[in-house]
Specification:
Length: about 290
């Protein structure tokens, strides 16, 4: 039971790191980017190529995936996404869904449709005993890394000058510009951070979630569930929602494999009935 709980927590942590960028762009920037999973897929493929073809260390691949997707995020934000900030949500959805299918087709063409595999370092393979509980070493690694990132994100948004500028830009962009805040740059950096985190999550999740050209389509619903159940006004909401859904999904597939995939949707429906605006919803935003 405790092993399943730990595996669910690790899975939830991974979902959060990938989905948090969507929570930021949707909740703070009021932009629906359903192509977020494509950034995660790209981070995973960068890791696969660097490790399998060029022998790059797995540990080095993680920051490379983050930086590469952050750069791609900035480029796309400057050239494409910023033009749709004032567009309707329907236009944003159609545009980002189009990007998803373009990315799927591109990966299918260049990398093929087969499942991609990576070989973890020996120290991350296998299981270890902690207080008598069998814990997967790689899942423990994911949990620790994600926990550090959660704390860093919360501090960055609530305790730093940049976090204050971002909240000001979201609440009233005109006033923020009058105060000397470069709203355009703030949004670009925010989008880059969200894209980079998605790439990092995809790199770490390639071994657990699996990696193939349909990755953005398979997990799009999961990311949306995390954001919907958790709400978009805080980091805490999506984090707790990701943990809850991760544990529910792992436990459901273990105890009732016949309907295991249904459990996560049942949890979503129950949570939305009880908290229709998310776990920590509040008024505000743009």
């Amino acid at each position: 039971m405790l092993t399943i709980l730990f595996d669910g927590i690790a899975y939830g942590m991974l979902l959060f790191i990938i989905a948090v960028g969507l929570a930021i762009t949707l909740g703070l920037m009021n932009f629906i980017n359903l192509a977020h999973g494509a950034f995660a897929m790209a981070g995973g493929y960068i890791t696969v190529v660097l490790m399998n073809r060029y022998g790059v260390s797995f540990y080095l691949c993680l920051p490379i995936a983050f930086l590469a997707m952050a750069v791609v995020g900035v480029v796309l934000e400057r050239t494409l996404y910023r033009r749709l900030y004032s567009a309707s949500h329907l236009d944003q959805v159609l545009f980002s869904v189009g990007l998803v299918f373009m990315s799927v087709a591109a990966v299918q063409y260049f990398m093929g449709g087969q499942q991609q595999l990576i070989h973890l370092p020996p120290e991350l393979s296998g299981r270890t005993e902690i207080f008598g509980i069998g814990v997967g070493r790689y899942r423990l690694f994911i949990t620790i890394v994600c926990a550090v990132l959660v704390v860093a994100l919360q501090l960055a948004l609530t305790k730093t000058r940049f976090g204050s500028q971002l909240r000001a830009a979201v609440d009233d962009g005109r006033v923020a510009r009058g105060l000397g805040i470069n709203v355009s740059t703030v949004f670009a950096l925010t989008f880059a951070a969200g894209s980079g985190l998605a790439g990092l999550g995809g790199a770490m999740g390639a071994e657990i979630l699996g990696l193939d050209p349909n990755f953005p389509l398979k997990f799009m619903v999961y990311f949306l569930i995390v954001v919907t159940v958790g709400g978009t006004s805080t980091i805490t909401g999506p984090f707790l929602a990701a943990l809850l859904l991760g544990i529910a999904d792992v436990a459901g597939k273990y105890y009732v494999p016949e309907i295991g995939a249904f459990v996560i949707y049942a949890v979503m429906v129950i949570m939305l009935v009880l908290r229709p605006h998310g776990l920590f919803a509040r008024e505000g935003g743009r």
